[in-house]
## 1
Amino acid sequence: MTPVILMLTPVMPSPTGGGSPMRAAAILECLARIGRVVVVHLECWGGTPEVADRSWCRERASAIAVVQTRRLADMVSIAADALAAAGMGDRVDAMYVFRQIVAPSGLACRERFAPRVSVLDLDDDEVQLDRFLASLRRERGDAEGAAALAAGMERRQAKRAILLERFDRVFLSNPADVTSLQRAHPSVQIGFLPNVVARARAASHVAIDPYRMLFLGTLAYLPNEDGVAWFIREVLPLVRASQAGMRLRVAGVGQPQSLMPMLSHDGVDFAGEVPEVAPEYAAAGMLVVPLRAGSGTRIKILESFRHGTAVVSTTVGAAGLDVADGEQLLIADSPEAIAQCCLRLARDAALRQSLAARAAEWVERHHSLDVMHGIIETALRPIGAAPE
Amino acid sequence: MTGEGAVAGSVIAQRETAGCTWTVPALLRWLSGSAPLVPALSPGAGWRALADRCDALRVLPQAMLRLASEPGSIPASDVAEFSARQIQATVKVGRALHFGCRALSSLRDSGIAAAGFKGIAAVGRLHGGQPSRGLGDVDILVPASQAARALDVLQAAGYRPKVTSLGVAESIAFARTSPGSAGNESISLVTDEGIEVDLHWRLGAFDVDAAVTEASPVRVLGAAVPLVRPAMGLLLSAHHALRNDFVPDEVIRDMLDAGGWFRLLQADPAEAAWVDLEARRVGLDAACDACAAVLADIGLKSGRGAPQRGTPAHALAELFSSQVSRPVNTDLVYLCSVRPSLVLLSGLLRSGRGYLRAMRAVEHAHGESQVPIGTRLARLMADAWSLPWQRWRQLRALAAAKDRVGSSRHKLRDADRGAW
């Protein structure tokens, strides 16, 4: 009998857009290989952005239920209705809960459906992320916001300790986060589930502009917002003073107010939401990842590797990926060093090509869908896999 | 003799020893885009040697930009090193501009009218506010009546006098009686990071109050700062070239800027007409025409006619050309005019040994060689003996032009002097 898997997620899985929807999409892809999946999207992080490909999710899931925030209390019965509508009755063999925010709902579902295996995928260490975000807010003069985050951090840590014990398996996307969390919770089975990106279709009709620096990411996410602002303020003037024609193209969901005036600076092209990322990668000389805070791993770096676009990243941006400066990408942290890397890539086609070739080989070996599928299949082994 | 007119022949000497033929006119042609680099880069005379030469001439950012725009000039194996060096140069200029803009903001916040001029004005008006022009320090102009307060404000903001062995009053008094100052009065300040900001309140015969009033905001590194008008930019480039005796290695940046200013003025006839009037008033007409002639020689149009043979402008342009191959000892200028000697004498009579001590302190702070006076005189006599008569004609024109600018017709008001 084909196993039934209930997937709870705060984002609609989508192979394009932000990092979380992309990871959710990869997970759904893997789960769909194992059994029949019912996706329950709890809108605690807001609705589905326009850019998300809804049909993609429908093609892989047996049923999709969307739970609006005001109906979170009815979440279990909505999930039950979705299972029934898909002809599965009340049977749930495995439950996959994506992100800590929906874990309490996951526990409620576990009580009702009693799956044989329940997995919690934290993706990144949100407590650690809050620590970074608090320091960012402090740096930006938002002492109140920083204090509120710091206060919430303890609550979240305590809550997480309770939640983790109740899942059979916990995943994180950054090996360093796995180690630190495992040390704090030795009785919980915590493992590494890498971010993955499927092979990309090349946009062969697009010509590369080596002087185009691309930033791609959810702009409403504070580390991205801060990184873009910092790049425009500190790095871009150096780059443009050294090479006429260098421009930064910013693409992504969200328009944070503090960032908008900077996006009209000389040398910045704001594209906003883009329906397809392939032409963006194809036209860019490089992807820039100027993050100064964050946790987990940057799925955009992997995506760029898949598209054959060279990457310049900060150490924080490349965290969690087993990559080396000068091997798969260029890593630098000071504005001067980042500017140098951007200029090198713009001017040296051979360097761009060699980095891209090594990165493509590396991402296929460590961050392909097959790698993720292997790990999830092992975690769900007690329920047995469906025949391919 | 603060070294303003001292010959910096070392760069030329090194270049000749190395057998390299990147003369200043060749570099001017290349940097201004009017001709390719001659001789072209080759493995024997690679980009590093060119960058070193341009660094010594303080035009490295411009040279790096130019090199970057020429396909194939940088071998792939050198791209990383080249980019690193370019960014270093850009960062250095960017840092100076940052502190210059900060100083201008501090003055504005204290209600003191001020304007950036020379390098920062060229960056703002000719380079789109980007740190792509060589810059050693940032020059700020304030009305003489505001100078004392401006100095207090800048000191409170972390800018301290560069000459530490002299008091502020002594430095200012020396500036007034230094023959090399050519009617300028200023004080050099430095930040803890070593960035130099020069605060000026008198510039030869220029009407400083008007220059500050007529300044307008221009974006530099993204921030709007007041900069002198383009016409003043040109006049001050010519003024700086004159103060530096049209020594090619010293004035290459002034010539590049002048090329930019002339280009701007060609699009603004009213501003260009004002330049002519003001240049005559402040005694810079010959220097301006000489700059135009030098630029014409390298193929750049200035909108001005070529100076007639026998005119001071022609002699100054000749002085520039003749110094390309052999710099002249510019101390010889002091033999062509009594004015510097009188200025020097008045300083000595007023302050005696204190004047000489101030001279040495200022020279030391500016990293200038302190050749013993006896040696300097002996060298002067030897050079005077061997100098061809055509060179004397050029030097006399230089001395006369400097006298005109130095003998300010726009005297400081007593009230302004009293501000100190």
Note: The interface with chain A takes residues 61, 64-65, 68-69, 74, 76, 79-80, 82-84, 86-88, 90-91, 93-94, 128, 130-132, 221-222 of chain B (CB under 8 Å).
## 2
Amino acid sequence: MSIKPHDDRPATADWHTLGLEPGASRAEVQRAYRHRHALYSPDSLAIYGLIDDTERCERLQHLDAAYQRILAYDEPRHQLPTATPNSLHTGPSAGDVPKIEATIEALRHPGAFLREVRLAKGLTLEDISMETKIRSSIIDILEDERFTALPERVFVRGFVIQLARSLGIRDPEDVAKKYLELAEATKDE
Amino acid sequence: MNDTDISIQLPDSSLSSSMGESASQSSDRSRPPEQPAKGPQIWSVGGGKGGVGKSVIATNLAVALAEGGRQVVLIDADLGGANLHTLLGVPWAGNTLSDFLVGKVKALSQLLVPTATPGLALISGADPDMDIANPKFAQKMRLLRHLCTLRADHIIVDVGAGSSANVLDLFLSCQTGIVVTVPEPTSIENAHQFLRSALIRKLRFSEPRPRVRSIFNWLDGIDQRRTLKDPRRLIETIDQIDPEIAAILHQTLHSLSFAIVVNRVEKEDQRILGPQLATGCQEILGVAVSSIGSTEHDPFVPRSIAEHCPAILRFPTCPFSVSIRRIAGALDSKVRKNVDQAARR
């Protein structure tokens, strides 16, 4: 069994490039990377007039290099559980990517929870729509919990499972079940 | 703008440190002894571009904070085009900021005008006929000294559009500068320019005056235009000449904090613009910037303006009002956190 040479490890500066401290969780690394990757992308509005294209490209390359080094150095002991926003917390690692645990509190409003996770990952409606092949207008309705505007129940279940799975939430079926329960309860009112 | 016009006058750093980041950051030494431990929290609202909603945001935030049980003073410091009285639907006051700036009115508190919202008072903007659009440095400093003595929880200062020296000075003197922008390239560009100019101005007029002034005079002389636009590059350059001053300026840059509000958000993907702007400014300008929220593009807002009544009062449940209340909550909790920190000391 070969031992990785010491200098394979990502430097502290690599973590700082992502705005993180060494040992941040994989989920945090991905979120930080997506956030900055979008920030330094060619059509980014947020840096308009702030830097020229040369500097933007340099920053993007710098970011990619740091991200690759951190990904390459993927030791479990480095994936310490750290704080994630609001009601999200990452459970123990299942396979490659740690799953997001939906708490009972979060599932009181499963639609809002889905949106929260999506935004925490820095994904737009269009991003998730591309990934799941669900129309963004439907995702918007699902996240808003506009139950009267929802499509048929049978579709809703599939959509919610699809979204939850794509967002890396643990137990997508349970999220769908809670979603439909809430939709039914609201209809009766 | 040249260095000489205000270089002989009172340094602004001594003043802003006395008003600095609430009790948590300002040491007892820098606070004037007569000032109570917990002064008002002073916010400035600016952002360069005209028409992005600075005044509407300032007015509605002030109402929201007052509705939350705080004592709030809203100050119309747009010396070129005051109109907060119109947004609030209060008659033009007899005495305005102009009368204070020319010395006709001795205390800022004499200018306070009640509004329809309990807990919210207005200081009306300057009278254009009094030609006070460019107050002298000493006049501005007197205004800032008086701001700290107002007995209120929050003071919100609308500094108006543009990046002129006066606007920047007012903006910088408050504890937290709120930059308002809309999701359009022109507005984003101006917001960046505004923040950049503010930071450079802050560094340029830092203490100790003689040494800092001579460095900047030298930089002006060798035409370092690019350096003089980039605070981090500027400090790096100065580090090669005078490391001690560079360290002080670095410290100054780190003591500042700003907040960003993205107004008139229409599309879902524009919601991440605030956090992106904050990260971009932090990484590129090297200054602490936080995103405190977005406000919705909302047809009820122009209607409320036409009716001379803040949207948050006229249409309390419209999307804009809901977002404003959320931002007001964020501002208020920030203050509570600072007060708690001070109390623990």
Note: Strands of chain A lie at 89-93, 98-101.
## 3
Amino acid sequence: MIFLASGCWNRRELNTLGVVGSVLYDVNKNKQIVATSELLCSASSGSTSGSASGGGKGSDASSPKRSTILVQGIGSSEPEALRNSSYSFSRKLYYPHTKVRFFSETFANTQLYKTLDFFLRDHELRQTCLMVVVKGEHPERIFTAAIDFNGSLGDYIYNLSQSQPASTSGSVFVDALEFMRHYHEDGLSPVAGVVEIINNPVSSILAGQDSQGNTAENYSVKYAGLAAFNENEIAGYLDENETRSFNMITGGCKSAYITIPYTAGNIVLEVINSSSDIKTELSNRHSTVFVSVSFNLVVTQVGNTMDISDPGVISQIKGKCQAMIKSQLETVIKKVQNEIKTDIFGFGFNTHIQHPKEFAAVKSNWDDIFRKADVFVDVKASISRTGEQERTFRLTESH
Amino acid sequence: MTPNYKYLTGRQLVFLFVGSKLFLDYTHLPLINTPPENQDVWITEILSIVFSVIFVIPILLLITNFKGKSFSEMVCTILGNKLGKAVGIIYAVFMTFGNFICILMILIFMNAYVFAETPPWAILIFTLLPALYSSYKGILSIGRTAVLFAGYAMVTILLFSLCGYPEMDYRLILPVLSDSTSWQILSGAFFLAARYSEIVLFMFLAVYFSPDLKVVKTAVLSIILGAVFTLLMALPTLTVLGNFISQHVWNPYYLYCRQIHIYDFIQRADSLSFIAWYILAIFKLSIYNFIAAKLLSDVFGTKSHKPFTFILITVLSVVCLLPMFNCSTFITQMRSYNVITWFVFPFIFILPLIILIVYLIRKAMKKLAVSKQ
């Protein structure tokens, strides 16, 4: 009882709190930090949508499904910007339930690395929230984008992190702890998720209102690809297809569809049980990397007349799939080596594990060695299942 | 079977030792910032068992030669009355100093992680009152609660180790022994064994041991169990947070516990870990306060240790609130391995060793005198 009583001093009543679901960090023209917090509305708040601003402009988050309001604060530092929200908000902002931290490109390029200390130091900030870069101008529009069945943008991105990896591997979901860990890890550069604000494809279909009277938002969020960071800024982006290859190399590919083009009709395979193995060699400041990716495939669609009950045909499809994936992986590795120029695959991290003595001598300029490294990719695929059909649907057309 | 209220059993002693040791690990996991200060630190914990066993030898030799005698009786017999009392006072100051460091760490952890706005004096009242009551009641009461309190902490450690499994990346503790020298590993093991003062508990509590207690076996078991549970905290922390972040935060294990979530139904489980930490804090303060009070009681020849428990806690409350001590920088300096070790080591090994040597010399001289006669 005594133990519980000691907490009363720091008690927080729900009706005095503004529980933050997500935060967008941006930099304005005066080079001040702008923090826009998305607050979750409790039943006692008596409000379901709206906006407020502290030392800055507020943006409207009106949506019939949303149960959030926005508050904005501007300051010369991130903690100050967050606190300055209280100039026009009557409750104490409460951050432990924040699910996502969004960063504008400007912020990610100029401020993010300075802010990591604050994220780790403040007692209310948690390291479980996702780190996401908002691509393009006017990042604040993200709060007006469609968020399907979710009450807040934070919930929307969090739910994506639960559902998307099981459907496609075209994105990464990196939490603050992982980002910070990779930031300081030798031979491994951090990556973050990327959202893009795109025109809502269904807004034109609904044209104002649907049969239930819901208004379609003008914008939609596309969560795909990744942002690669070198020490202090964004080094480059990978799109969703390249990110899928990245995930295959790093062992983060949980599920993906691979479409193998054939003139008579494509064959689609689903990746299950993917794994990767990275072996490295380091001699005379030159690195050689052997990436071995293996995955199990399930036939999902046969659009042509090939007889997949024939082991020879399966072997042919497998060979074509392996060659295609190998080419994709090599392209991505080349892109990262030549354009992004920082080791997001962790080849250096693996070199440290496999050749610690040699790596110690080169770790300070690992990125230079990474750019010149010879990377050999080996893809091993196996097709173990062919779905519910024993024979190809269009097989009779070939006779 | 009638419960044993007269003596400390072997099981109680093991839980007293482990619970007291785990408090420090819960608070700042000293292992992480001990040489070699890299992914190999967990190996130093294993090696520190050997050093701890070496350090406890003089104490074990002393208590087996003075079975049934209190520490004060033992040192007065060996060193004479005046010197024996002086040693008693020195150890009382040492135990109080241990509590002083613990209280400061409690204040900083509470303010930094949990109750940022709660004033230190309020934290002190709620922490020191139960510790005072417990030490007032005596070591046999503390011993009986040890199984429950330390047991709960050990269960939470096991639970968090299991729940954190999905978050762990074992590559973070690789490569093994490649980035460290043998000297770093050895010195790390020494610093680690030398900074925990728990082995002196055997010396002070020997008078309460049940007659059938196997002291050597209990001591070794306590040391091994303490190290195992420290490893169960350190390995998950290192494999989730990585070496760099673990070294840079005030309490790496608590940060690790905050990362634990299983799907959507086990969230914010760090409160369980926090409760374990707080219970251990009170537990450790009680043990140390009791021992310091008992030593002073023996030195001054009072009937009971009870008045001294009040005096010591009151003095500590005042001193710990002084601004020069109640600040992060002071305790960060004090708890670093190259400072605290040199405060603790003389009391857990050098002084008992000197007492043992004096005892052996006197014993040999006595034997010689008898043989001459």
Note: The interface with chain A takes residues 112-119, 122-123, 126-127, 129-130, 171-172, 174-175, 178-179, 240-242, 244-245, 248-249, 255, 258-259, 261, 275, 278 of chain B (CB under 8 Å).
## 4
Amino acid sequence: MLIIPAFHEEERLADVLRGVAAAAPDFEVVVVDDGSGDATAAVARRGGATVIRHPFNLGYGAALQTGYKYARRMSADLVVQMDADGQHDAADIPALAAAIARDELDLVIGSRFLGVGDYQMDVLRRTGRAVLQALIRAFGLRISDPTSGFQALGRRVLDLYVRDSFPSDYPDVDVLLVAHRHGLRIGEHAVAMAKSERESTLHGGLAPVYYAYKMLLSLWAASSHPRSGATREGTR
Amino acid sequence: MTPEQRLADLRELFLSAPESSATRVLAVMLSLGLVAIVLRLVKRRTLREEYTPIWLLVAVAIALVSTVGPLLDALTRAIGAWTPSSALFFFGQIFLVAICLNYAVRLSQLTLQVKNLTQELAVLRTVVEQGEGSPR
């Protein structure tokens, strides 16, 4: 199952769905329309996707979680999530899902920093990424792209991510840390990415400050999560 | 006389100053008014019963400290304040901070419940629509 959270994406969603149909035709595509006021839901239906519609906007993380809840209800064992703004390349979906399907990993993160593509970051974002990496490294988790929204998830991760502690706004390193502390096997796969619309919105006004504050608080809360089972990570 | 002694005397002067009966009457009226407003809100179903005890307790507390003189004096001396009105402001602010924090917690719980209900509704609606669209 492929989950695409979407908010006001009527212009770019059709291209994304065409790419998915060509690259991953075996995946059931589920678009979670997070209370868009435009034709996002209609575009998704025309593109052959199953549409789950929030009556009002709940946030990127809540839209993802709605997809996870639907996936569990449909007894899906493997979920790939990607953004609706065209940032992610659908051609990477099969490779991301492969390690989950083989039950080698529970969570695979599509990383833009493993030598594929030429993703460029400004100083602010580079600094933020370095700080986040250092913080999660302190907890024993090595991830090159902790804010990537392009991920493949197995059943155990779904069971964890449908809990109330999953954030409604920005699920990033904090949820990775929780998964890590629950002993889930986390790995990465090199992908190429375009500029992110979602991350660009974090540059307005005090948003980066709030994001940094919220992430530090979430990391602290996640670090007090009970640790269970053995942990294995690997970079693929 | 040292400055510290002069300050101590001055404080004692403040604390022993006779209270105006108008202040007491005003406080009792405020207390009764608060009770009346709370009961009226409950009658109109604007305020749920479980939220009333705290406000009725506040009304009783206002009436007590304004009518039982030694009580407020003792509280004022206990916290090191100079005047009974300072003590009232002090406790009033503590109460307001506590109640705001309590409401923030309740609001967080409600936000979570609304999110979960909305997600459940959205998922079930999709499942129902799929059922309606499938061949019988």
Note: The longest helix of chain A spans residues 207-223.
